[in-house]
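Appendix B. Chain record.
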Amino acid sequence: MTSQQLLLEGVELMLFGMGLVFLFLILLIFCIRMMSSILERLAPEESHAAPVVASPVQPGSVQAVDADTLQAIQIAIKQHRARRG
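Structure tokens predicted for this chain:
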């Protein structure tokens, strides 16, 4: 074989390989889209619920905090602020 024939055979092989990869990628995209549509039919996307908004606090609905709990909260706040600097 001459060098020209080898070069042409190499180009043919390259084009065949690139075409095969291109066809495989097209098939892959088709399969992914098909699976996506099947999954959307089987398990429709759940509606996104609106974020929960806290209702305004009414003066009569607040529960009293006992003294021990209040003291524990105050100590925890002081420790947190001391760590932050």
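Further analysis of this model is presented in Appendix C.
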